[in-house]
């Protein structure tokens, strides 16, 4: 189960497990939040992400791309080591760490 909740103004918290089974739902939820202030500066706290696979990385990267296309800013905090490792293998770790 994955949960994306408001944790403050332009701040979201990602909790649970993000994998192939729920990636589409999580992706759409994130896009809906980001669309509320497309040009804003968002932070997503990932410290509550208990499990993740390459589908999670794809979701996070698409959120970054969506924010960038809309002229907004997005960065992640508390990325779990598993996500960092997958990003490193995919050579997108710097992008994931820096945000847009």
Mind sketching the topology for me?
Blueprint: E1 2-8, E2 11-18, H1 23-35, E3 41-52, H2 54-70, E4 73-77, H3 81-89, H4 93-98
Parallel strand pairs: 2-3, 3-4
Antiparallel strand pairs: 1-2
The helix/strand order is EEHEHEHH
Radius of gyration: 12 Å
The CATH class designation is: Alpha Beta
Uncertain spans, ≥5 residues at pLDDT below 50? none
**Number of domains as seen in the coordinates:** 1
Helix proportion of residues, in percent? 40-55%
Query: Would you identify the CATH H-level superfamily?
Result: STAS domain
Cα(first) to Cα(last) distance is 27 Å
Specify the structural class: alpha/beta
**Named CATH architecture:** 2-Layer Sandwich
Protein architecture, described:
The protein has a single domain, classed as STAS domain (Transcription Regulator spoIIAA), CATH 3.30.750.24. The mean pLDDT is 96. The protein has a four-stranded mixed beta sheet. It has four helices and four strands, in the order E-E-H-E-H-E-H-H. The protein is an alpha/beta fold and 100 residues long. A hairpin with a 2-residue loop joins strand 1 (2-8) and strand 2.
Key descriptive features of the protein:
Transcription Regulator spoIIAA; 100 residues; 4 helices; 4-stranded mixed beta sheet; alpha/beta; 32% strand; globular
Brief summary of the model shown:
This protein has 100 residues and is an alpha/beta fold. Helix content is 45%, strand content 32%.
């Amino acid at each position: 189960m994955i949960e994306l909740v408001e944790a403050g103004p332009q701040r979201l918290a990602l909790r649970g497990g993000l994998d192939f089974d729920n990636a589409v739902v999580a992706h759409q939820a994130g896009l809906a939040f980001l669309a509320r202030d497309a040009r804003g500066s968002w932070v997503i706290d990932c410290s509550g992400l208990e499990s993740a696979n390459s589908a999670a990385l794809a979701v996070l990267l698409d959120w970054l791309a969506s924010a960038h296309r809309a002229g907004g800013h997005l960065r992640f905090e508390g990325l779990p080591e598993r996500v960092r490792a997958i990003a490193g293998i995919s050579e997108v770790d710097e992008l994931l760490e820096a945000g847009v």
